[in-house]
Amino acid sequence: MKVACNIKFPPNATGCNCKGACWDPKTCECARLNGSDFPYVQRDGGRLIEAKDVVFECGPNCGCGPSCVNRTSQRGLRYRLEVFRTPMKGWAVRSWDFIPAGAPVCEYIGELTRTEELDSISENNYIFDIDCLQTMRGLGGRERRQQDGSLPVIQNVDKVDEQRLENVPEFCIDAGSIGNIARFINHSCEPNLFIQCVLSSHQDVKLARVMLFAADNIPPLQELTYDYGYALDSVLGPDGKLRSALVLLSHFTWQIGRGKIYRNLVASPPMYKKYTRYPLYHFLTQGN
Ligand SMILES: C[S@@+](CC[C@H](N)C(=O)[O-])C[C@H]1O[C@@H](n2cnc3c(N)ncnc32)[C@H](O)[C@@H]1O
């Protein structure tokens, strides 16, 4: 991940004192942060048991080694992913390999940037808001934003603009000019991946890593998708009018009055819970 020069990256967390690999949730400090348990099981090289607000992994200062189960998302690509062309959606991604539910698929990589500094002129389809903090605090998860009445009743565009900007996450990942395969993964309302915020070196949720995990067992060559997190009828176009969901999908990032770029991808973990067709123990008892 490239970090914009005006962002002070947090120092490494103290970590746990486990040796070799973490196995006892009662003594592991990192397990304690996850609610006194490990978020992953060892099977298939590590699978996430269930979607969480944020996953605390072991990091550089932990006593355990690279094979520790609590470093599952740090081991790079496991599956042979392919970028392919679709008739209607441009580029897309699929895997040549079977992906089991709960397996980490890839991280959303790009330049870590302050949201306010996004270029308001050029269109950029590859921006991912890091929204974990809002969700954890329960202040501004996207669904809550909708319920609190700020959306979608649009009467005074300026007022709505201000309300929304208060909820805009401070940091985002801009994969417009630098990125990895995650930037080619398309949106679906019935996705087979979900977003999971992960903290591995530091503990600042505003700068959490954004990981994509399998929401289900995914057969080879099935297109990989996740929910971009748009709320229906929540998007204003440059003219201040609501954009339809269809238009919205062809304009990943868009602008509203006063040249500000507004809303793009949103990581809102509780929403993704509805797409995880497991806790993993379900799959484990079914034999896969
Ligand atoms: C992060 S990019 C995904 C990769 C993109 N298809 C490409 O060719 O680079 C997001 C853009 O892909 C397109 N897209 C993603 N999901 C789509 C969908 N379900 N239907 C139509 N277009 C989609 C939209 O143009 C969107 O702005």
Condensed summary:
It contains seven helices and 17 strands. By secondary structure, the chain is an alpha/beta fold.
SSE arrangement:
Elements: E1 2-3, H1 29-33, E2 40-41, E3 47-48, E4 55-56, E5 81-86, E6 90-95, E7 104-107, E8 111-114, E9 127-129, H2 132-137, H3 142-147, H4 157-167, E10 171-174, E11 186-187, E12 193-199, E13 209-214, E14 225-226, H5 245-250, E15 254-256, E16 260-262, E17 265-266, H6 269-273, H7 280-285
Parallel strand pairs: 1-8, 4-12, 9-17, 11-14
Antiparallel strand pairs: 2-3, 5-6, 7-13, 8-10, 9-10, 12-13, 15-16
S-adenosylmethionine binds at residues 88-92, 125-126, 183-184, 186-188, 249-250, 252.
Q: Give the tally of structural domains.
A: 1
* Poorly predicted tracts of residues: 138-165, 232-238, 243-273
CATH topology: Beta-clip-like
Order of helices and strands: EHEEEEEEEEHHHEEEEEHEEEHH
Identify the overall geometry: globular
Distinct ligand kinds: S-adenosylmethionine
**Which architecture name does CATH use?**
Beta Complex
The CATH class is Mainly Beta
Pfam families: Pre-SET, SET
Keywords: Chromosome
Subcellular location: Chromosome
InterPro entries: H3K9_HMTase_SUVAR3-9, Pre-SET_dom, SET_dom, SET_dom_sf
